[in-house]
Specification:
The complex is a heterodimer of chains A (475) and B (446). With 475 residues, chain A is α/β, with parallel strands linked by helices. Chain A contains 13 helices and 24 strands. Classes of the chains: A alpha/beta (475), B alpha+beta (446).
Chain lengths: 475, 446
């Protein structure tokens, strides 16, 4: 069969690219080795959010006395919870299948090998081989959880995120290796479901990649809940002991042991660029990532790469956007390019975290003179009425031009609030623009507006002394 | 039978059309991709375009000498025959033929720093890969120059956003800024000149916030007329200025005699008539120096009459009365005319007729001071000459001795659309020669 485009991988980068290719009139086929929707839909973003929703609902019910609601007995049926989650996943992956079909995108299941530019051989589970010829190959093979020595994933004692999303039961004690966003998202789900969790992080703070104050705030939040966090600590090994597992952790040069029932290892993900036969064709791969240009072309004509395998950050929305760019470029669109001003990052911990653009430190390093404005959710009427006043919203702007450089938030629904901030950065808006935009009352986005005012010391609902000669909104 | 139409590709920023210089193929010829196809000349470069697809030339729709707009079909190729069918992407325009420029295509307007192009593999011309955009602006966070849709538009137009002056808040580049930048390109063909003149006035009006202690008067009348005329000239005529020093020692002596001879007739013989005569003589050798461009009919108008405007400073501002038929008048007659026009100017008695019909202008700043000026062309004339102060200056004479001479700078600003630098320089050499040996001026040419 001859196609215009063969896409390897039906995750959020691959299937989005496939649909857009079809919309642009290109004859397209997608190869998937496992399940349509990729990690995101099956064992990532979507199922984790379902469990997180259940965990936070359980927490809310248990802490509703303040509103006069007392639940006498709250039971959790893990089997039912997992089934509900599977239902959501099923609907979404089915939806992807339906969309591909309606767009007349062919789907071939199996492991793909690129044997020559324009030639892909797919080995099906049944051993059947299919050869696909096309003008373009788009590699969207995603990434895989990293295993650390001594903690091979076995699905029983050592879980990856995949196992954590389909637990047979809620474990009593869980040790989490890696205090990054996946570890904390899932760890806090289990915390809310009643598990005693313990976090072992190699770096000097949790969420090491995030803006420093967000990390610190999360660290404080964990401490407040008495969740033990070991920083600059390294998990070395584990063994089975009576009644559970014993994990040896090196902290400050000294070995300590902790007992638990299950280990969740979430130290990161590595790109799936290797093993497809691309190196042999001369495709440049750097640190596992396929090197691409602004239109997501690899170093070999006719081979493109998008999503996790094409570079950091490994985020579904970044991959989907790349999918759209590559599809347009393949269809001959000269204006298509991957050139975001900023890519938002969201973490569905409890409380949520969201961040886009530069931190003050990064802004300084980039040659700006940054100014920060911060507004606490404790001063938000809406946050109070939700009984979720933890956290704040922080706007970083450029003193010279007032342009918004970054927005960093921790608190209720901030994963939703980040959209406004991202738009502001993409469009080159100033804090004055945000401040002069009417935000509905009473809503959480008012915090973004107040933080923008706070840059000039002009937030209305917290006490501040004006710091700017020119008040926000005036010239 | 499969045929493909070939459109004249976008050969350079701001190029709207090209002249077919030479077809390198003929109808019926079997051609292969990348063979030389056609030579196309634009106002800045002649490029050789290569054959886009294997096939047989079926039709050539333009003749050598034809001026064709970009994107119009100039050839039809039958691709059904021998050779692999072109593996172009579904859209025919997805693949652009490679254009090998014999001169670099004009760059976008400003000599801005090159757009930061990510380390990209080359665009591959194997018929599969689509052409890479001209430039990517890699926006790092916080350095956003424009909203995403504007950035996209800039890529499509091949414009480096860094080169575009942004009128939006904090210098943000708007779609309108891009549009203005695109049309204001100096590489645009003369036919587009009128448009670019309009573009010059299309800037968003700039308000000046009052800070107190200012005087505001309506900007009207002659001042406004001058502003409009100068703006039009500067945005239309592509000025260059050429300057030379003239040893007028002999002319000074001659003029002294002449002045004495005509003093009793009430005529003040100045240097200007001599310079005007030299300019006319030089124009007869280089006629395009006395020309105008008819932008409507797209014709170059060379004038065989010589009416010279004299830029005159009045209390209200600059006016330019015209001395007619400079070629047919004697030096004393010219001196008289200049004197009369000056009187009428002072007395406010100039008629409309006195201010019209100029073909060339002289502007004399010599009585005020300065070294030399770069005058603005009195549009639609093609050139303007700046006459400057005669100063006692050490000069090296023919015998190699340093002597005190009378030296004057002459500058000439010329519309490069019509006259090239070399022509302007040669024209000035003739003027210089005649003024340095004024006996030649009086004797006339053979």
């Amino acid at each position: 069969m001859t196609y215009d485009v063969t896409i390897l991988g039906a995750g959020p980068a691959g299937y989005v690219c496939a649909i857009r290719c079809a919309q642009l009139g290109l004859k397209t086929v997608v190869v998937e080795r496992d399940r349509l929707g990729g990690v995101c839909l099956n064992v990532g973003c979507i199922p984790s959010k379902a469990l997180i929703a259940a965990g936070s609902l359980l927490k809310k019910i248990r802490h509703a006395e303040v509103m006069g609601i007392t639940a006498k007995q709250v039971d959790l049926d893990v089997g039912k919870l997992v089934a509900w989650k599977e239902g959501i996943v099923g609907k979404l992956t089915g939806g992807v299948g339906g969309l591909l079909k309606n767009h007349k995108v062919d789907t071939v299941m199996g492991e793909a090998k690129v044997t020559a530019p324009g030639k892909v051989v797919v080995a099906g589970k049944d051993g059947k081989k299919t050869t696909l010829d096309s003008k373009h190959i788009v590699v969207a093979t995603g990434s895989t959880p990293i295993e650390i020595p001594g903690f091979a994933f076995d699905g029983k004692h050592v879980w990856s995120s995949t196992e954590a999303l389909a637990p047979p039961a809620v474990p009593k004690r869980m040790l989490i290796i890696g205090g990054g966003y996946i570890g904390l998202e899932l760890g806090l789900v289990y915390h809310n479901l009643g598990t005693e969790i313990r976090v072992v992080e190699f770096m000097d703070r949790v969420l090491p990649g995030m803006e420093a104050e967000l990390s610190n705030e999360m660290g404080r939040s964990l401490k407040k809940r008495k969740i033990p966090v070991h920083l600059e600590a390294r998990a070395k090994s584990f063994k089975q002991v009576k009644g559970g597992l014993e994990v040896t952790v090196e902290i400050g040069g000294k070995d300590t042991t902790f007992e638990c029932d299950v280990i969740l290892s979430t130290v990161g993900r590595r790109p799936n660029g290797a093993g497809l036969g691309l190196e042999a064709l001369g495709v440049t791969i750097e640190k596992g990532f396929i090197r691409v240009d602004a239109q997501r072309r690899s170093s070999v004509p006719g081979i493109w790469a998008i999503g996790d395998c094409a570079g950091q950050p490994m985020l579904a929305h970044k991959g989907s956007h790349e999918g759209l760019v590559a599809a347009a470029a393949i269809a001959g669109d000269k204006g298509a390019a991957f050139d975001p001003a900023a890519i938002p990052a969201v973490i569905f911990t409890d409380p949520e975290i969201a961040s886009v653009g530069l931190s003050a430190e990064e802004a300084k390093a980039a040659g700006f003179d940054p100014v920060e404005g911060k507004f606490p959710f404790a001063a938000s009427g809406r946050a109070m009425s939700l009984n979720e006043t933890e956290g704040w919203c922080k706007v970083v702007s450029d003193r010279a031009t007032d342009k918004v450089l970054g927005v960093h938030m921790i608190g209720p629904e901030v994963t939703e609030l980040i959209a406004e901030a991202t738009l502001a950065i993409e469009a080159g808006l100033t804090t004055a623009d945000i401040a002069a935009t009417i935000h509905a009352h009473p809503t959480l986005p008012e915090a973004v507006m107040e933080a923008a005012e706070a840059v000039h010391g002009m937030a209305v609902h917290i006490f501040q002394k004006p710091t700017s000669k020119h008040p926000v909104g005036a010239k | 039978m499969a045929t493909k139409e070939f459109k004249l590709p976008d050969i350079g920023e701001g190029i709207a059309e090209g002249e077919i210089v030479n077809w390198m193929v003929e109808v019926g010829q079997t051609v292969k991709e990348e063979d030389p196809f056609v030579e196309v000349m634009t106002d800045k470069a002649t490029v050789t375009i290569t054959v886009p697809y294997d096939g047989v030339i079926q039709e050539l729709r333009a003749k050598a000498g034809d001026i064709v707009p970009v994107e119009s079909v100039i050839a039809v190729i039958d691709t059904s025959g021998g050779g692999a069918a072109p593996a172009a992407a579904s859209k025919p325009e997805a693949k652009q033929p490679a254009a090998a420029a014999s001169a670099p295509p004009p760059a976008p307007q400003a000599k801005a720093p090159a757009a930061s192009v990510p380390a990209a593999p080359p665009a591959h011309g194997n018929g599969n890969a689509s052409r890479a955009p001209a430039a990517f602006v890699q926006a790092s966070p916080g350095k956003v120059l424009a909203a995403p849709a504007t950035r996209r538009r800039a890529r499509e137009l091949g414009i480096d956003l860094h080169a575009v002056p942004g009128t939006g808040p904090s210098g943000r580049v708007t779609n309108d800024d891009l549009k203005r930048f695109g049309t204001g390109s100096p590489s645009a063909a003369p036919a587009a000149a009128a448009k670019s003149a309009a573009a010059g006035r299309a800037f968003t009006p700039q308000a000046i916030a009052s800070l107190g202690n200012e005087t505001r008067t309506p900007f009207v009348g002659l001042r406004r007329k001058i502003a409009e005329a100068m703006t039009r000239s500067k945005y239309t005529a592509t000025h260059f200025t050429y300057v030379d020093d003239i040893d007028v020692t002999e002319l000074v002596a001659l003029r002294k005699q002449a002045k004495a001879l005509f003093a009793d007739q009430g005529v003040n013989i100045t240097y200007l008539p001599f310079i005007m005569k030299a300019a006319v003589a030089a124009m007869k050798q280089f006629p395009t120096m006395n020309a105008s461009l008819d932008e409507v009919s797209n014709e170059l108008v060379v004038k065989h009459y010589y009416n010279f405007g004299i830029a005159t400073d009045t209390d209200n501002g600059l006016i330019v009365p015209v001395v007619r038929d400079v070629d047919r008048k004697s030096i004393p007659q010219l001196a008289f005319d200049i004197q009369e026009l000056a009187r009428k100017s002072r007395e406010g008695k100039l008629m409309v007729d006195d201010l019209q019909g100029g073909t060339f202008t002289l502007t004399n700043a010599g009585n005020i001071g300065g070294l030399f000026a770069t005058p603005v062309i009195n549009f639609p004339e093609v050139s303007i000459m700046g006459v400057h102060k005669i100063k006692k200056t050490p000069v090296v004479n023919a015998a190699g001795q340093i002597v005190v001479g009378d030296v004057m700078y002459l500058s000439v600003s010329i519309d490069h659309r019509i006259v090239d630098g070399a022509t302007g320089a040669r024209w000035m050499n003739v003027v210089k020669d005649l003024l340095e040996q004024p006996q030649k001026l009086l004797l006339g040419s053979l």
